[in-house]
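Fold it.
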Amino acid sequence: MNGLSKYYIKKIITCFALEITATETSKKLRINRNTINKYYRMIREAIADYQEVQLRAVSLHNNDKKYFFGWHTNEGLIYTPQEDAQMFSLTIHVGKVYIKMETVSELRDNTEITSIKNAGPEHIFNAEVAQQAPPGSASLAKEVLPADKERHINEPAFNFFLYAKQKLIKFYGVKEEYTYLYLKELEFRFNNNGRDLSKLVLKILPHHSPEWNRTTRNRK
């Protein structure tokens, strides 16, 4: 990561904000792919920390809707607790979503958290439908009937599921330790829809990434 000017660092952040892949960013900016990967990881780690701070800052209520889902390296999104998958809870508070890592035992003991399948029409979450979509395929949002869309248009959990499903399809096979970072990134994008993410990321990095501060110190 040595030698990059602030100009190119800002270009990398802009590409990240626009959801341009690391490979495409590397070609676009003519910067080594490994360097782009390191900056993207740094940004995702800062975003995850920022989102965790946001979660601690809000006052969650007992009547906030809570759902669970999982991410299996080979199966993708799953809707029942599995020991060989990473499990997460999804809390809806004032129209925003907040994701936490959970254990299978925690989910089974907490009856207030229901499967994300209960947030939308059954056919959207059908396992057979999900398995028909290979990595890199189009969003499963196309499977949603107009009536279903209208009925659930104000249900953040349902909308987030469709959004996450579309984005995560391309990450089948992603290393398990990075799953949480990708989900927190999606949480960040979903909760800040309509905002200038480039500017927001630039504000977040100095406060949530010591590595960023070390890397960009004295850059011109």
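DSSP finds ten helices and five strands in the chain.
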